[in-house]
Every structure is written in structure tokens, then in C-alpha cells.
């Protein structure tokens, strides 16, 4: 009942206490190795499959155990593992398991509903770069995780790992968009063609475009000084001051 590479219990209801014990008591020096095995074995996939079964059966005791297992996986503080856990195939299951914190059982959160139904990814300027889209979604999930879930149990090291992932995602997003032959042209074209919209649409679109610029400015803070200067010069050359002037003058 073990994966040979690291005495990793096969995922099953019977083995949940054993899995939790292994994850909770692992020596710090072994955390990276354990995280590597968890990633290679795609352990989270099996945990989510078990979660679906437990949730159907309303098995609150084992759902609470699964929550503790995931909590321990995050507290390994290994970026490669966190990266896998919040990736598109698994994040819904992960956030589902994280709803079963025994300390808030009376007021169970609904993270899945919020992430799937209450938030919408708004693509004000179309870009079809899969790297950018993946990193934007990942950053949003990590921010949500930081603000709404991990505050209950994370330590400074966990928050540091998450901030690092966000930091490098921001760099990658800005750099990929700068490489795009169309993105910034399309963005500034939308600003210059605002007058072609109806008054209501014009206000709404201008707000969305300015929010996008604001996010880009925030992300550009992660760039090294020279790259940040280049980014700002590029925007100045495209007429960003005119954009701000028009925004100030608009109703």
C-alpha cells in the first residue's frame, strides 16, 4: 500500500490518518523530497477523487481529515507542489477540500461557488497567449488563497512562497505582453476609439481600460529597475499621458 519512492500511503479512506501523520511529522530536511514525490505521483488528483466520494456520502469526519492533509501539504512550503495544487485541473477540488475546516463547520465557506460563479475573467483587450492567461488565473487563485483561507494557518514562510509565485508571475505577464505584437497597440486603440461608443458604454469601457492599466502598473513594480524604466518609456511613447488627461476630463 505504499509508493516505493517515499513510503507514500496509497490514497484511501483507511490510509488518511497515516497520510496525515506522514505529512505533519516530516523532518524539514525531507520536505522538498516529499513534495517532489507528491508532484510526480500527482497525489492531489487521487485526493480529489476521494474527496468527491466523501462529499457525496457527507462523511464529515474524513472530509475534515482531508482538510488537515491539504493544510499540511501547503505547510511543506514547496512552490512546485503549490503550483500543481492550484493549477486548472485541480484547483476546484483543492478549494472544495479547503471548505471543510472543522473550526468553521457551523459557517462553512463556499470557495468553489465564489471562484467559479461569483468572479468573471474580463478580457478588455483580447490576448491569446496561454502563458499570460494561465499566470493571471494562477495569481488570482493565490491571492484568494492568501486573503481568505491560509490566514488561518499559514506561517511567514508559506506567505513568502506565495508572494514569490505572485512576484514572478507578474514579471512573466508583463514581459509576455511586451513581446506581444498587438496587445499594447490594441489597448491604446481602444482608448482612442472611445468616442465611437455610446455614452454609457464609453464610461464603462474607459473604467475597464483604466483598471487594466492600473493592474499593469502594479505588476510592473516586480520588474527590475531598468526593465521598469523601459516599460514606462514605452507607455509614455504610446501616449499614456493623453489617456490620463482624457480620463480626468471625462464625466
List the helices and strands and how they pair.
Elements lengths: L1 E2 L4 E2 L6 H9 L6 H10 L2 H14 L3 H15 L4 H7 L5 H7 L13 H8 L11 H19 L7 H24 L3 H10 L6 H22 L4 H13 L2 H10 L2
Helix pairs in contact: 1-4, 3-4, 3-6, 6-7, 8-9
Give the tags:
251 residues, mainly alpha, two-stranded antiparallel ribbon, 67% helix, elongated
Notes on the protein architecture:
67% of the residues lie in helices and 2% in strands. The protein contains 13 helices and 2 strands. The protein has a two-stranded antiparallel sheet with strand order 1-2. The chain is elongated and about 65 Å long. The mean pLDDT is 89.
Which residues form runs of ≥5 with pLDDT under 50?
none
Q: How much beta, percentage-wise?
A: under 5%
The sequence of SSEs as H and E is: EEHHHHHHHHHHHHH
Number of strands: 2
Class from secondary-structure proportions? mainly alpha
Gyration radius over CA: 22 Å
**Major β-sheet, in short?**
2 strands, antiparallel
DSSP helical segment count: 13
The backbone outline, from C-alpha atoms, is elongated
Helical content class: 55-70%
Mean pLDDT, as a whole number? 89
Question: Distance N terminus to C terminus?
Answer: 67 Å
Enumerate the strands of the largest sheet in spatial order, edge to edge or round the barrel: 1-2
Amino acid at each position: 500500500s505504499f509508493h516505493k519512492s517515499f513510503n507514500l500511503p496509497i490514497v484511501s479512506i483507511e490510509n488518511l490518518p497515516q497520510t496525515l501523520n506522514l505529512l505533519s511529522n516530516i523532518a524539514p530536511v525531507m520536505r522538498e523530497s516529499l513534495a517532489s514525490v507528491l508532484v510526480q505521483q500527482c497525489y492531489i488528483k487521487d485526493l480529489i477523487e476521494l474527496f468527491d466520494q466523501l462529499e457525496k456520502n457527507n462523511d464529515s469526519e474524513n472530509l475534515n481529515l482531508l482538510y488537515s492533509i491539504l493544510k499540511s501539504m501547503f505547510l511543506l512550503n514547496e512552490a512546485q507542489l503549490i503550483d500543481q495544487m492550484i493549477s486548472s485541473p485541480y484547483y476546484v477540488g483543492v478549494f472544495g477540500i479547503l471548505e471543510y475546516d472543522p473550526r468553521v463547520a457551523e459557517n462553512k465557506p463556499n470557495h468553489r461557488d465564489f471562484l467559479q460563479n461569483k468572479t468573471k475573467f474580463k478580457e478588455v483587450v483580447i490576448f491569446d497567449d496561454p502563458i499570460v492567461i494561465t499566470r493571471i488565473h494562477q495569481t488570482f487563485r493565490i491571492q484568494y488563497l492568501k486573503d481568505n483561507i491560509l490566514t488561518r494557518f499559514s506561517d511567514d514562510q508559506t506567505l513568502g512562497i506565495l508572494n514569490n509565485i505572485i512576484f514572478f508571475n507578474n514579471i512573466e505577464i508583463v514581459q509576455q505582453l511586451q513581446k506581444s505584437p498587438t496587445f499594447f497597440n490594441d489597448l491604446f486603440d481602444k482608448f482612442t476609439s472611445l468616442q465611437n461608443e455610446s455614452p454609457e458604454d464609453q464610461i464603462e469601457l474607459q473604467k475597464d481600460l483604466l483598471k487594466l492599466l492600473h493592474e499593469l502598473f502594479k505588476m510592473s513594480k516586480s520588474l527590475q529597475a531598468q526593465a521598469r524604466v523601459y516599460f514606462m518609456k514605452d507607455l509614455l511613447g504610446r501616449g499614456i499621458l493623453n489617456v490620463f488627461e482624457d480620463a480626468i476630463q471625462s464625466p
